[in-house]
Each structure stands twice: as structure tokens, then as C-alpha cells.
Design brief:
- The protein is an alpha/beta fold.
- The chain folds into 2 domains: about 1-225 and about 500-529, no CATH class; about 235-495, Nitrilase/N-carbamoyl-D-aminoacid amidohydrolase, CATH 3.60.110.
- It has 17 helices and 12 strands.
- The strands form 2 sheets. It has a 6-stranded mixed sheet. Strands 6-7-8-9-10-11 form a 6-stranded mixed sheet, covered by helices on one side.
- A hairpin with a 4-residue loop joins strand 4 and strand 5.
- The protein is globular.
Amino acid sequence: MERLAGRIMLLWGWRRLLLAIAAGAIGALATAPLNLFAALFLSFPILVWLLDGTAGGPDGGFAGRFGSAFVIGWGFGFGYFVAGLWWLGNALLVEADEFAWALPLAILGLPAVLAIYYGLAAAIARLFWSDGAARLAALAFGFGLAEWLRATLLTGFPWNAIGYTIMPVPVMMQSAALVGVGGMTVVAVLVFSAPALLGTRRGLKTGMGLAIILMGAQFGFGYWALETPVAESGKTLNVRIVQPSIDQAAKLAGDDREAIFSEHLRLTALPPEEGKPRPDVIVWPETSIPFILTQNTDALTAIADTLEDGQILLTGAVRMEEAGPGYAPRYYNSVYMIDSGGNILAATDKVHLTPFGEYVPMEDILRRFGVQNLVALPGGFTAGPRRTVLTLPQGAGLLPLICYEAIFPDEIAGVESGVNALLNVTNDGWFGNTPGPWQHLQQARIRAVENGLPLIRDANSGVSAIVDEKGRIISGLMLGVKGKVDASIVLPNAASSFVKWRERNFWLLLSLSLVYALVGRRAFVSRKN
């Protein structure tokens, strides 16, 4: 192992960058649906050894101590994001004649931009670098801070954060309730980097011992959390998820709108599965109604005729709002709540819009170069001013998350009292049979664990699922399957008691890793002098 570490440290030029890219690409095997988290036990030691090779002396110049480390981290990120996000290009092939030109931007351009965060992580770590176990803490600090920035800056895009890779199954997910995905990123980097110490020996016992303690604590807390019952509200919600699996090209063409709408009604009207009660709530996926509902009274009548007395429909739809004479109407990506009489009881709008999917950033400039939304609406979508809880007639409160809002922990950080479950409606049909829908599901499950709330997730083409507050899938429908699924959810009394502590626990963990790195750096410099 020491010989291998030495050879990697001594690599130079393009070979170093190529190995960094390969290490990141191997690490992407740890993302869903493969969830081969052991791959990162190879990726991160390679990254550590590559950074060791950039170390130089403690008095090295800025370029030597920062720039070369940035390039290595950027290469690692580029490999990780290309291998983990290549499927984004599938959305451009739905209307290939119009958007195929942008494939290189989606497959290579976006990863190149996202990799800047990992370049920054490596560069920050290099500022506190040493020769023992403390350098792993420096790397954990760098990645923890970089992932926080990636989730925050420029509307954020925290897809496939490193923290998810160490939480492939429910027993390993429970710690997210304590420290969130950001905290689990710090833990993941410390654990996955530990084998690097086998190649350099200094700090081996300390680093490996720390990794074993962290993994043991993660599993121990996970087993305890899974065995500990939650306080129930006494409310049981019988839910039906409708997964129509409508081809995205057909949805965009608009030629079969009545057939698409009728298919949703047909699946809604099917009798309950054997042994299952009649559903109280039926859920349709994001933008499932193929026209402006408030302009189509026949559609509301058809919904009323399909629902049985007392049933509620929660459906994704495009909501139009007139802006006044001389102004174009505003369009919202919304969820409607409709009763069995065909009355719209409430609506909530998507707050966190998808760049280039629902709106064009710096629109005045980019539209001059032919850049436009994937969803063709005049002026794109408008963001809702705030997230609105949908309170069902049964008294249960659902917090709606539309599409990729489910990947943002902070979207739910201030979860209100009276919320008993999360509702995620999405249309992952853009991405076909690729890892994308599975990765989306994995991240949505972590939202359930973080908040201690069940999750009702309806995706047009899958993967749809009903998930309990521990992240366990109660029932669901696989990718590409047309159908419906019925399940009963016992609702908790409130969100997890850890919610209000989660963010400060993350910053505490990040601070501890920095302190450890600084202590190690000081000892390293003292030995050199």
C-alpha cells in the first residue's frame, strides 16, 4: 500500500489530473441506484494521496499550496459529476430537434461547473494539510463547507452530495436526523479517506480508530432509531398514488390531452387492492393535468364524477393567474386540492424553480443566444411567494415539495407545526430509464428521515413510493410501470425533535473537523521546523 501511495504522490502533469477524474468517476458508483458505497474507500484515498503530492513545503507559495490542489479537486469532481449526472442529457433528447445542441453543456458543462466546488474543497483542505490523520479532517472540512455552498449559491444544486453515499439503507440513514446531509458529508469523507493512512502510516491508529467509531455510532444510532416508536397523532391516512407513466414527448405534443386526462381518471376509479381500505386521498404527479384546470369546467366535473364521496384529489397542474390588462398572465407549477364535488379547496405553488427547465436565469442576455426553457410557456414559470401547507379535511397537514424541491434540506428546515407528512409530486419522465429517478427518490427519502415525517411521493413514470418517517419504503411502483398503489400511513404527532438542532449540529461537526485539522497542521509545521 505504501508503494502505491508513493507512486500516486509522484505522478505529474496530465497523469495526475486523469487519475483524479477516474477516482471521482469510480466514486459515482456509490450513488443510487447502485449504492456501492465501498467504491469511495478507493476514491478518497486516491484523492488524499494526490493532494499529498501537491503538498511541497509548509512555506510553499500560493500557487503550489492552493492552485494545484484546486485542479486535483476539480478533476475529482468532474469525474464524479459526469459519471453521476450524465442522465441529465436525456431531458434534451425529448425534443432533440430543438435541444440536442445543448447535450455537451448538460453532460460536460454542468459537471465542469459543479466540480469547482470540489476544487474549492481540496484547496481549502490543502491550506490546513498535514501528514497524519488530521489531514483527513481538513478534507472533511473542505468538502462539508463546499457542499453547503453548492446547496446555497446561485439557487443551489446539491444533487448527489457526498453525504448521501454513506446512507444507502435505512439503518445508515438515521443519523441524518441529527446532522443532516451536510454533517453526513463530513462523516463520509473522514470514513472513506481513512484507508489512505495505510499508505503513509503516520496517524494510522488514530484515523482508523476514528473511522471505526464514526461507523459504529452511525449503525448504533440507526438501529436504536429504527426500534424506537414515534409519537402517533392517532390519524391514519389511506392514500392512493396514481402513476400513469405518460411518455414525456406525448405530454409535450399536446395531441392526446383528453386521453392523458382520462387515463388518470381510470386509474383513480379502480377498486382498492385486496384487503386495502378505500383511499381517502388520491395523488396525481406533477403537471399531470394537461390543460389549465380553471378554464375547463368539464374537467372538474369529470373529477367530481370519478371521486367517491369524501375523497380528496391532490394533483399537479399548471396554474394561470391573470396579471391585468396589458400584461402577460403568470404561470405557476402548482398542486391543487380538489374535493369530491369538483371544488378546488386550496392550491400551493412551487417556490424553488428549476433553472433552464422552468425559467431562464439572466433571461434578457441568454435569450439573445437562443437559450430557452425546456418547458415552453410564455415567460416561463413564476415562483410562488411561500410554501403553503395543505390541510386535508381529515385534519392532516401535508407539506408539498414539487419536483426537485425535495433535494433541498433547507426547503423544509422551518417545517411548521401541524405538518404530519411530506408530499412530493414530480415528473421524472424527462430522464427515462436512467439513474436520475432513483437518485431523486433516494434524496427524497432522506428528507423524510431528517424531519421524522412520512413521505408520499408520486412520479409520473416512477419511482413512486410511500415512505415512513424512518426512510423505509412501505409500498411503491417501479420505474416505467403504469398503475396505482394503495397504502395506509399512520401519521406522527409532529416532526422529529432533532429538527431544530440539525443545522447547529452540522456547524458544530464542521467546526470540530477544522479544529482537528488546525491542531494537526500546527504539529506538522513544528516538526518541520
